[in-house]
Design brief:
Layout lengths: L2 H15 L3 H11 L11 H13 L5 H11 L4 H19 L1
Length: 95
């Protein structure tokens, strides 16, 4: 992934997690800016997002399965990409 793709992905993740203001606030405080967030390379950042994904109602099973499959064995790159794909799919459903 390019730096621009990572920044765009981290922004997408931050917007998705905004419904959890305490998580977003904590992450902004840790990073300083949205652009400095580490959803893409730190499981401690990404796991609250994964937890939120698993609580989303009325989600097509295939979309959740992609995220579950990326969890074991944990590969941050695969998991991050699966989360980004899920959020893009979710955002299309919300429109």
């Amino acid at each position: 992934m390019t730096d621009q793709e990572i920044q765009e992905g981290n922004k997408l993740v931050a917007e998705f997690i905004t419904a959890e203001p305490e998580v977003l606030q904590r992450d902004i405080l840790k990073a300083g800016t949205i652009e400095s967030m580490h959803y893409h390379d730190d499981c401690n950042w990404l796991m609250p997002v994964v937890e939120k994904i698993f609580t989303v109602k009325n989600v097509f099973c295939g979309e959740i399965t992609k995220v579950r499959l990326a969890l074991f064995p944990v590969n941050i790159d695969s998991l991050y990409e699966a989360v980004i794909e899920f959020i893009k799919w979710y955002n299309r459903q919300e429109k």
